[in-house]
Design brief:
Length: about 600
């Protein structure tokens, strides 16, 4: 036992806390490069060494050994050398991308700080910026390159980019990432949510290069309200970083034989507005994508985008000026077959493939921004998307840090997603308890969404409250929404399946309504009477009874039953039936389709006729 004088103990205790808060309060800026899939990238995916750090000692808490104790130093233990109490090179590895919970039994329930490290080689190019890109890291991330602190990021489901141009060396380098998935009241989501708190670097990591002056963002949208595609007018902008006013920007759409020039203003922004005769609109029936290319100075960016309009008129949702019914399904970003956080193209193909098999033209990506490859695939498949930030259940409405976190996640979701034709709805929240503080909080988010992206619609999923057998959809939140999402669990959490058709619905706000959740649990392969919960027959009967009720709601414009696939949740502990999974899936976590899958498939098939 090393005896320390009171002063040293106090200093040690203080310093143990300081680095953590100092790091988060420094919160070096990250940026968010758009469309990086079409930029030169060097993958940093693969095995990274890791060290769990539940007591947060790795911040270099002990100034006496600061030169060796901080994990960001990436020191190595040398027998006979100075005291070093960690060594990444001697530590096990985790595969990146991938949450840590589903990779190691010892990390299945782990919540806290965990350090990652890998080496990488780099050869800087002149007049080139280099960023390290993270598809996502849940929940907070602190990034170091060659022991220099390069950025921090909070929010578990949106990408971020840290510039390392001045930190990276020619030759050997190393990167250290401290990721912390500790639930906390002030975080978004807060401490209780019905999904697994998968921690870690959950989506791909790469080094991304851009020239000195580069395309920071762009948008090109079909102007609303024009009679048909023969009079199509495209409007948009390109924003450059590092370019002065008067820089020429060229927007090309080879498929339409269009090439347009514009010049940047003092803010680096070039505006475009031009006719696009013969443009073919994007729709579920014909998800037409056009290759576009942008040139600005030495930078070039390509993308595949679709052109469509989405708007509301009374209690109708109009796609390309025509009423549309959204045949949807909700799903979590849970990896089919292996479980864990979804991230691969194969995961996206499995999940959206099942939605396509159900004859869906719509999906609700619950309850947080999903991996970007799902949005790209939805663009290609012609599946419209409800995209959501995790303002879920009882958020800390009065904490300014919480509001800042929600605003930042909303900004990042929109910035990453606003060129995906599939995205039609930005969702501000899910099942938040009514209060003036909640209304004020979400009002700010709705205003921000409309300001950042006036071309899409704003929604939220709200808990349905019934008076007897009548639901009146008058939650004050509806004032701020274009489309009202309502969740109800008649036949599961409330009432008997046989009574579902007796329920009626009132819509005093006169806005379009989506039933954004309904459903029931079933263990795949468990069969019995349709009165026995958790049998496939029970779940199937709930769907059948729901259809009888939903079919009579005159202002219903869509539905996203809960849920496409079983997903892990610590709230689902019934042994032999749930075993850590929410079993409301139409498909099990192992890909087994339940009876209700085919009932929904048949219902949507008939709706299409
Ligand atoms: C809620 C919630 C979902 C949850 C579901 C359930 O409506 O929005 O996240 O998983 O109910 O209880 O299964």
């Amino acid at each position: 036992m090393v005896r320390m004088c009171r002063r040293s103990v106090l200093r040690l205790l203080l310093s143990a806390a300081l680095p953590f808060f100092a790091l988060t309060s420094q919160s070096q800026q990250t940026t968010l490069l758009v469309d990086i899939d079409n930029r030169p990238q060097t993958s940093l995916n693969g095995p990274w060494h890791y060290i769990p750090d539940p007591v947060r000692d790795g911040w270099g808490s002990n100034p006496d050994h600061a030169s060796l104790n901080g994990y960001a130093k990436n020191a190595h233990y040398v027998p006979g050398g100075p005291l070093v109490q960690y060594d990444f090179a001697r530590s096990p590895t985790l595969d990146i991308p991938g949450d840590w919970n589903s990779q190691k039994d010892s990390l299945f329930y782990y919540e806290g700080l965990l350090w990652y490290q890998r080496d990488f080689t780099w050869h800087p190019k002149p007049r080139t910026h280099v960023f390290v890109h993270f598809g996502s890291a849940n929940y907070a991330a602190h990034i170091f390159v060659n022991d220099a602190h390069v950025c921090d990021h909070e929010g578990g489901f949106t990408p971020f980019d840290c510039e390392i141009t001045d930190t990276v060396k020619d030759g050997d380098n190393f990167i250290v990432a401290a990721v912390d998935n500790q639930r906390a009241v002030e975080r978004v989501p807060t401490v209780k949510f019905d999904w697994w708190n998968y921690g870690g670097i959950t989506r791909p990591v790469s080094l991304v290069e851009v020239p000195e002056s580069y395309i920071d963002d762009y948008s090109l949208q079909l102007k609303r309200g024009l009679p048909n595609s023969d009079h199509a007018q495209l409007e948009g902008y390109v924003h450059l970083v590092g370019a002065g006013p008067g820089t020429r920007v060229t927007f090309s759409i080879p498929g339409l034989h269009i090439e347009k020039d514009a010049v940047t203003d003092t803010n680096g922004r070039a505006e475009f507005s031009f006719a696009a005769p013969g443009l073919e609109l994007w729709s579920p029936e014909r998800p037409r994508l056009y290759e576009i290319s942008l040139h600005a100075g030495s930078d070039e960016l390509k993308d595949d985008i679709g052109f469509r309009t989405i708007e509301v008129q009374g209690d109708q949702i109009l796609l390309n000026g025509k009423p549309v019914f959204l045949r949807g399904v909700s799903f979590h970003d849970e990896a089919p077959f292996r479980s864990g956080r979804s991230w691969s193209d194969k995961d996206a193909e499995s999940l959206l493939g099942w939605a396509h098999e159900l004859h869906c033209n719509f999906v609700r990506m619950a309850h947080y921004p999903h991996a970007e490859n799902e949005y790209r695939l939805a663009d290609k498949l012609g599946i419209m998307v409800w995209s959501e930030i995790p303002v879920y259940w009882g958020i800390d409405w009065t904490d300014p840090h919480t509001l800042d976190g929600a605003k930042q996640q909303l900004h990042e979701m929109i910035r990453r997603g606003h060129n995906h034709a599939s995205v039609i709805l930005w969702s501000m929240s899910n099942e938040t308890p009514e209060s003036p503080e909640r209304d004020a909080f979400i009002h700010q988010l709705a205003q921000q969404a409309r300001s950042e992206d006036p071309t899409r619609l704003v929604t939220s999923a709200i808990v349905t409250h019934f008076e007897g057998t009548t639901a009146t959809l008058d939650d004050p939140l509806g004032q701020d929404l274009d489309v009202l999402g309502y969740n109800e669990y008649l036949g599961w959490y409330q009432g008997k399946p046989a009574d579902i058709p007796n329920y009626t619905w009132q819509n005093p706000l006169g806005k379009p309504v989506i039933i954004s959740e309904f459903g029931a649990g079933a263990k795949a392969g468990l069969h019995g009477p349709d009165t026995e919960m958790f049998t496939e027959e029970y779940q199937d009967n709930v769907f059948r009874q729901q259809f009888q009720m939903l079919g009579k709601i005159p202002f219903l414009r869509g539905m996203t039953p809960w849920v496409l696939m079983d997903f892990r949740s610590p709230m689902r502990q019934l042994p032999g039936i749930q075993d850590d999974y929410n079993r409301k899936g139409l498909v099990s976590d192992k890909g087994e389709k339940k009876k209700a899958f085919f009932t929904l498939q048949d219902y949507y098939a008939h709706m299409q006729q």
